[in-house]
Automatic annotation (TrEMBL):
It comes from the Bacteria. Modulates cellular lipopolysaccharide (LPS) levels by regulating LpxC, which is involved in lipid A biosynthesis. May act by modulating the proteolytic activity of FtsH towards LpxC. May also coordinate assembly of proteins involved in LPS synthesis at the plasma membrane. This is Lipopolysaccharide assembly protein B. Gene3D superfamilies: Tetratricopeptide repeat domain. The chain crosses the membrane at residues 6-25. Fe cation binds at residues 363, 366, 377, 380. GO terms for cellular component: cytoplasmic side of plasma membrane. Residues 361-387 form the LapB rubredoxin metal binding domain. It comes from Rubrivivax albus. It holds the Pfam family Zn_ribbon_LapB. The keyword Zinc does not apply. It is found in: Cell inner membrane. The keyword Metal-binding applies.
Length: 394
């Protein structure tokens, strides 16, 4: 009994000392591992700031190997791969994160968001759609819906685009009316291409109802009405467009003038075109106005190359008010005998104004532009990088 007690008294302190030594060794190893992981992390960060991405990736991989449970390192590594265009490796990193059972819900959504970005950047739009859909209802819900909307636009899936844009309106309170109207217009064009005018008309009407102030629906409605023989409806739609958006009305100004001449409504059309030009002085509107200068009984519109006296006056006034190369070209097409006394200096001023942005030298290395020639580029500090000729002479 005394012998066993003696060994017990000796063994207990020995066991305590051995346990204490083992714990100290474990703590030392733990501290070493903790010290090595931040060192590799900061080394990678320093390399990344110095734009040495290859070495930074190696450092981050080493840090992840030291501490596989560090999610932030995985995210940094995946983002680096994506920025370098190594989408397959980026996908593997983020899929590895998603496979972890101990991942917090916020980090899970973050990894899913990164994975969706990987697929989108890689051009894998079907897989990107699935990844974005997995984020619906999460903290990334709005961003996921916007990304899905972009995917539907890219794939020309207008029905899905309409549904998604409507949901975004209802959830976020933002207005997508004009965008939805574009989708209906695209559906109308697809229906016309498929030979279904009934569906096309329905889509155009829905576009007008969705966004009454948007310019594209009345423009398209006027073209559809003209093509189906309803000239009066065409004029009505285009006059609505002229009142709401005179600049875009110029896109169909010539068509409007031709239909108005055909119906004998030249006087009304002149007023509409004059008001549109006063609000948005564009050459297309000016040319459309010239088409109404012929007498009402004339079948064809006047030749743009030989405008009437009224047309000449409008062109000269346009050059004085809106000096541009387009206006100069219009005036140069007119016989010089019909010019005004100040037309020549106005032409010179218009050409000089248009040519001014091109009368500069551009560095062939970095694209820096200057009005004066430099032997050393102020932008990239390169020598002899400026061609000796300005842009307009290249």
């Amino acid at each position: 009994m005394d012998f066993e007690l003696q060994w017990l008294l000796i063994g207990l302190p020995v066991a305590f000392v051995l346990g204490w030594v083992a714990s100290r060794l474990d703590q030392r190893q733990w501290r070493r591992d903790r010290r090595d992981a931040p060192r590799a992390y900061f080394e990678g960060l320093n390399l990344l700031l110095n734009e040495q991405q290859d070495k930074a990736i190696d450092a981050f991989i080493e840090a992840v190997q030291h501490d596989p449970d560090t999610t932030e390192l995985h995210f940094a590594l995946g983002n680096l791969f994506r920025r370098r265009g190594e989408f397959e490796r980026s996908v593997r990193v983020h899929q590895h994160l998603l496979s972890r059972a101990d991942l917090r819900p916020a980090d899970h959504d973050r990894a899913q968001h990164a994975l969706a970005q990987d697929f989108a950047k890689a051009g894998l739009f079907d897989r990107a759609e699935g990844a974005w859909r997995a984020l619906l209802g999460s903290a990334y819900d709005s961003e996921a819906r916007l990304a899905l909307l972009s995917l539907f636009e890219r794939s020309r899936d207008w029905a899905q685009a309409i549904t998604t844009a409507t949901e975004l309106e209802q959830r976020d309170g933002s207005s997508f009316a004009t965008r939805i109207a574009h989708y209906h217009c695209e559906q109308a064009l697809d229906a016309l291409a498929a030979g279904d005018p009934v569906l096309a008309r329905r889509c155009i009407d829905e576009a007008i109802r969705t966004a009454p102030e948007a310019p594209r629906p009345p423009l398209l409605a006027g073209q559809f009405a003209r093509d189906t023989g309803d000239d009066n409806a065409a004029l009505a739609h285009w006059e609505t467009l002229a009142a709401n958006d005179p600049a875009r009305f110029a896109l169909v100004g010539a068509d409007y003038a031709d239909v108005a001449r055909r119906l004998g409504r030249g006087d009304t059309a002149r007023d509409v075109l004059d008001r549109a030009y006063a609000q948005a002085p564009l050459l297309d509107t000016l040319r459309a106005r010239d088409r109404l200068d012929a007498s009402p009984g004339t079948a064809e519109a006047p030749d743009a190359a030989t405008p009437t006296e009224e047309g000449v006056g409008r062109r000269l006034r346009h050059l004085a008010a809106q000096p541009s190369l387009g206006a100069a070209a219009e005036v140069l097409a007119i016989d010089t005998a019909r010019w005004h006394a100040d037309t020549r200096p106005q032409l010179h001023a218009a050409v000089q104004r248009a040519a001014a942005p091109l009368q500069r030298y551009r560095c062939a290395a970095c694209g820096f532009m200057a009005h004066h020639y430099f032997w050393q580029c102020p932008g990239c500090q390169g020598w002899d990088t400026f061609p000796p000729r300005p842009l307009e002479q290249q």
